[in-house]
Amino acid sequence: MKKTIKFKIGVILIIVSVILFLLIPVVPFLNMERGIKITISTVLFVFGEITFWSGGILLGKELLDKYKSYLNPKNWKSKDEKHE
Questions:
Q1: What does the H/E/C string look like for 69-80?
Q2: 34-45 b/e with 16+ CB inside 10 Å = b?
Q3: Number of domains in the chain
Q4: pLDDT at residue 84 above 60?
Q5: pLDDT band at residue 1 using 50, 70 and 90 as cut-offs
Q6: How far is CA 44 from the centre of its chain?
Q7: Domain with 39 in it
Q8: Can you tell me the distance from the alpha carbon of 45 to that of 40, in angstroms, rounded to the nearest whole number?
Q9: How far apart are CA 30 and CA 3, in angstroms?
Q10: How does pLDDT run across 23-81, given as a tens digit for each residue?
């Protein structure tokens, strides 16, 4: 696959979305008021979704489906399935 700027931006957006989602469980341990924690968690979730789907659109449906199959827990135990 040719590594165009569109591809690189798509990968960066997906990586950013993963980081945003990983930050959500950290928020309850911050020393802030409850309302601020809820707001931060919501913002992280919304921006995580936006960046994931934006990156998915840039990468294309086929590549996104390929990597989603890797992340599907139903496919984790099957050894005879090949991810193509």
A1: HHHCHHHCCCCC
A2: eeeeeebbeebe
A3: 1
A4: no
A5: low
A6: 11
A7: 5-74
A8: 9
A9: 39
A10: 999 999 999 999 999 999 999 999 999 999 999 888 887 676 777 778 777 777 766 55
Task: Tell me the C-alpha distance between 62 and 73, whole Å.
Answer: 19
Residue pair 55/14 in contact by the 8 Å Cβ criterion = yes
The whole-number pLDDT of residue 74 equals: 78
Asked if residue 79 is part of any domain, the answer here is no
**Residue 50, pLDDT score:** 96
Residue 29 falls inside a structural domain: yes
What is the predicted pLDDT for the residue at 78? Answer: 62
Tokens of 49: 């979704």
Name the DSSP letter for residue 59. Answer: H
Look at residue 37 and tell me if it is in a domain.
yes
Residue at 80 is within a domain: no
